[in-house]
Every structure is written in C-alpha cells, then in structure tokens.
Amino acid sequence: MGGSQSVPSESSIHEFTVKDGTGKDVDLGIYKGMVLLVVNVASKCGFTNKNYTELTELYTKYKDKDFEILAFPCNQFLGQEPWEEQEIKEFACTRFKAEYPIFQKVKVNGPAASPVFKFLKASKPGFMGNRIKWNFTKFLIDKDGKVIGRYGTSTSPLAIEDTIDTLMRNGEWDLKLLNDMFVEELVKKIEQIYIANKETCDRWVWVINEKEKLNCKTTYVDFLINNLRCINKEVDAQGGIHSYLVGGEECTMIDPQLYLSFQLSRE
Fold first, then answer.
1. What is the DSSP string of 172-200?
2. Which intervals hold domain Thioredoxin (predicted)?
3. In whole angstroms, what separates CA 25 from the centre of its chain?
4. What are the residue boundaries of the structural domains of the chain, listed by start?
5. Class of 13-170 per CATH?
6. Rounded to whole angstroms, how far apart are CA atoms 73 and 84?
7. Cα distance between residue 147 and residue 239, in whole Å
C-alpha cells in the first residue's frame, strides 16, 4: 500500500519550513501560539465548493483569534489540482474569498511527499495508515504545534468548529463541556448498543473515528448504563481513556471527543 517511508524526527509542525505560492521559504515557527488547520486542497474536486466555502467561513470568524488555515494544493488524486500556483490562488481568492495562505503544490503520499505531510500522517495515522485517502483531509494543530486531530474529506470544516474554539480558548478541554456534551452523547450511544447486544456484550473496544484526543488533565467521569456503572479513568499518555464496567471486563476508549459519531467494533 504505502511502502516504507522515513519517519520525521521533528516533534512539532513549527520546526518545518515550506514554500509559499511564489517559491519563497516560510518558517512555520511563525505560527507558534496559534491553532492551525492544515488542508490538502484541490480546485476540481467534488468536495471543493463545500470545503472552500466553509474554510472561508471559519477563517472569517476566527482569523483575529489566534487561528490560521494552511492550504496545500495537491494534484495526486485523479489530477484534480492541475493548475499552477497563481491560478490556484486566483481561483480560491476570487470565487471563495480565501484570505488564508495557499502554499506551493505538494505531494502528500509516497516517497516524494512533503516533509510536513509525512509528519502529519505519522503523528495521526488514518484509516489507510500513513496514506491520505483524498483531497481536503484536515489536520488540526494545537498552539504547541502538536497534531491533535485528523479529519477525512467528508468531515466539513464547520463540523470541527467547536473543537477549534475550545483549543483557542485554553488549549485544553473544558470539564464542563466534557460532562455536558461528551458524556451525554456517549451514554446515549452506548446504551443503545448495550440494549441491542447485552446477551453477547462482554468486552468491547469503543472507537471514535478521526476525532481529537482528549487533551485534558481530567479526573474521573462516572455514569450509569442500565445500572452498570462505567468509570472513565484519567487520560493516558496517548489520549485514551481506560474504562471499566463494574463487574465486567476492562474496556479501552481510543481518541475520545466531545460529541460525535461513534463506531463500535468487537475486539
């Protein structure tokens, strides 16, 4: 599939230098202290209109609040970004009023992939491992330059607005939001699944697709599911929550988020 690729030694996106649309070097260290959304864009994709429109909406709302969008054109997916940099910029700026930086065209997969995208993929592998599946894959970066989340093409920019807003406010998850949104939604989903599968449900791995790690020094979140008490212990180094059903087997929740679509898979 992806072949062997060298793993970047950098620990932060701020350590990289990229080329802007005119070929000039840009030190990404200038974005320290800002929340970043890095996107591989294309002008002739079926997802172009929705993504560019919502990227502009996000940028307009948050551009004065330590937020930046970094767009990298890529022609690796069915040749859907055939233009040169100046044409790409004119298209995005004229049709979609893009004001955020649009960098030099890059490759995002394969041995010749941009070092930045090698770093992003290694930091947050997706469904296809270290390969990007399609245009408009999005990587969310915190103020320290760490990759917090990876979102596929079908996840629109506005779908992650609340996450962006939370990161900009304090860089950590708000425990009240965790209680009010994450637990409420999680309980609802798990209760439905438990009722449907209680005869065979002994041990499960709960997986939330392409969402953020819970970047929080939180304590415990307890809730009841059909009289079974579920105890979510403190977040571990990988951002996971170790969950225990009292009287049952240990469960592990991977990459929890606040509100969302859930996928449950049997271990």
1. S--HHHIIIIIIHHHHHHHHHHHHHHTTT
2. 7-169
3. 26
4. 13-170, 175-266
5. alpha beta
6. 9
7. 12
Quick one: pLDDT band at residue 229, thresholds 50, 70, 90?
Answer: very low
Asked if residues 232 and 241 have their Cβ atoms less than 8 Å apart, the reply is yes
Distances in whole angstroms, Cα of residue 3 to Cα of each of 9, 130, 241, 255: 19, 9, 32, 26
Distance CA 34, CA 27 (A): 14
d(CA 41, CA 223) in angstroms, rounded, equals 41
Tokens 């929890």 appear where? 256
Sheet of 228-232, strands arranged across: 221-225, 228-232, 241-245, 250-254, 204-207, 263-266
pTM: 0.64
216 is catalytic: no
Distance (Å, rounded) from C-alpha 186 to C-alpha 106? 38
Catalytic residue among 45, 201, 216, 230: 45
% residues pLDDT > 70 (the chain): 58
